[in-house]
Design brief:
Length: about 230
């Protein structure tokens, strides 16, 4: 339901054309700085950014991506002004520029940054979720680090065409719930930086509505458009 807020030329209505089936997994974004950065804590970075508005830069894997939206929400909640530098995905110069010190901070997914944090290639300051990420519990949350109420988890989910029979939706939902309990699936998700998590179709619908309500004002204020 966030897509119509970003794309002016969308050729379908996600809310009307797709039926939610089940959540599959959730994952936070990570806020990182280069190892050469003077900032050891997110609070210190925020204080510096407030004292030097517009002088810091941050990178994301692209305009309208969840890390981009997460960064705009971070700016909104902290009242800081930092310059966004969008890339075309994590592999199109973002990491090389970041490691070279051309960016002051980066927001990206656990799948993109978790191993870099673990190997000390970059310095992790915080995760964006309300709770610490179980697979990297020493990373504090942004809410613990000077951004009260900041809570953002990304997610994967399954949808089907809106006219799919309800018994088929129920069968896929039940099968997904069973699959997510398989040890092999849990191990695979762990490598991807994703926490397995199922849901009912109604719970997934509620998440869609909440996401749209969260992002609509942020997208409007930041004038984010994906063409």
């Amino acid at each position: 339901m966030v897509q119509p807020l970003l794309f002016s030329t969308l050729t379908f209505d996600p809310a009307a054309d797709l039926a939610p089936v089940s959540l599959v997994g959730t994952y936070p974004n990570i806020i990182v700085v280069p190892n050469a950065s003077p900032f050891q804590k997110l609070e210190d970075l925020i204080a510096h950014a407030k004292a030097n508005p517009g002088k810091m830069s941050w990178g994301s894997p692209g305009i309208g991506t969840v890390p981009h939206l997460a960064g705009e929400l971070f700016k909104h909640r902290t009242g800081i002004e930092i310059t966004h530098v969008p890339y075309r995905g994590a592999n199109q110069g973002l990491m090389s520029d970041f490691l070279a010190g051309r960016l002051d901070l980066m927001l990206n997914t656990t799948g993109s940054l978790l191993e870099s944090v673990r190997s000390k290639q970059v310095r992790g300051l915080a995760v964006t979720s309300a709770q610490r990420f179980p697979d990297e519990p020493e990373l504090p949350t942004a809410a613990e680090s000077g951004v009260p109420g900041y809570d953002l988890s990304s997610w994967y989910a399954i949808y089907v065409p809106a006219k799919t029979p309800s018994d088929t939706v129920a069968k896929i939902n039940a099968d997904m719930a069973a699959t997510l309990n398989e040890p092999a699936i849990k191990d695979k998700f762990k490598l991807l930086g994703v926490l397995p998590r199922g849901s009912t179709p109604a719970e997934l619908t509620a998440m869609n509505v909440a996401d749209a309500a969260l992002w609509a004002p942020i997208i409007k204020v930041a004038n984010i458009k994906v063409e």
